[in-house]
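Recall from the previous chapter that SMILES is a line notation for molecules. Here it describes pyridoxal-5'-phosphate.
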Amino acid sequence: MNYPLEPSPGAMRAMGDAALSFLLSFLEGLPEAPSFNTESARELARELRGSAPEDGGSFDDVLQTFVLAASKVNETAGPGYLAYIPGGGLFSAAVADFLAAGTNRFVNLWAQAPALVQMENDVVRWLCDLFAFPPGSRGILTSGGSLANFSAVVTARKDRLPEDFLKGTLYVSHQVHASVTKAASLAGFPLGNIRRVACTPELRMDVEALRSALRADRSAGLQPFCVIPSAGTTNTGAVDPLEAIADVAAEEELWMHVDAAYGGFFHLTERGRERFVGIERADSITLDPHKGMFLPYGVGALVVRDGEKLRDAHYSGAAYLQDLPGEDELPNFAEYSPELSRDFRGLRVWLPLKLHGVSAFREALDEKLDLARVLYEGLREIPGLEVPWEPDLTTVPFRVAEGADGDPNTLTQQLLDRINASKRVFLSSTMLDGRFTIRPCILSHRTHRDRIDEALDITAKSAAEILS
Ligand SMILES: Cc1ncc(COP(=O)(O)O)c(C=O)c1O
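With both inputs in hand, we obtain:
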């Protein structure tokens, strides 16, 4: 009998060898690869459209199709990727994913694979310890920051509000990431229950504005229950005043959830810890290892000070799981999370941590903070640009200054297009106070000083051309 779904060892080795040799040459070529290569990508997408074939084909053909499709992209893995929030994608984590998927282990209920669950639990404990959370704290690895924010808001809602929760109001700054307001909406809150608190000129949440919003809502008979500061906003990397917000949360008995999806791992560095004072008082924190730990897309994390509250919000028993014991010293992660079956994502954090050690991550993050400084100082030297905010982390927003010949928003858009046309760096933009602003963000493990110097040269030349 021939079982095509169970290839021979030789066929599997051939597939593995071919995939690995592609990956090695891809990674070797990254420094010289164009920062985007999407010119004919839509045509290719249309060409590839097709239904599932009745009969299978060769692995080489399938791999070639993937290789072609994966080349018509914005180069998110390359050193020039400074758009949105980069991550990079560690090779060691890709190997972990291969092993995890190849063995297909189930880790969301501990009795299925106790020692593997211990490995993932060590990762979660490491994250809790990073913020000096107490022994009763618990956490989960999610698919990303958005899902972590969602579970956090649901947990806060269940802990602080009655079943009928529509009088509950939550507080974010107007710079908050959209995943937080989406989380609140998915958790059942009308948009009108989300207060977007004003910011200071540094684009940090204004604590006095927070206090007055709370006063107004309380006197209107509403039930403020949660405040969500950011430890690194996506727009500018600003860190909200966490200590002062923690004071307000304590006085007002609010759940404090910190969205540290972008900035969280800077807590490994001395500069990060200085900026994040107060984060250790949070009730819960979102982290994104696929950003600050440079892992491939697909792993976020939520840590919660009182783990029982996370469990209360997510636990749901089932008769068909009765053979599997409840947790003892090992957690049943499924009881703390919306997910039951999922990938063994703990391995993609555990393996790189064990292989490289925490110091390698700390040094890389320190390097990114240094590079942001270099970029900030360098941009300030370029005539005609304004660099309005000193970076708290590694995002350095800039734009064409007012007073140039033409509309600054249009000129900044032209500047962005011209910089990106170099294909050596890829930057993205945002709107801040009605102004079109370019916001390079340095967070790939592959971005080093040479690329930042090059980005500065390209920006200076592009600005000179546009403003001449
Ligand atoms: C501050 C912040 N919060 C949340 C998210 C959402 O995370 P994810 O894209 O992993 O779902 C992001 C993503 O960029 C972010 O920057």
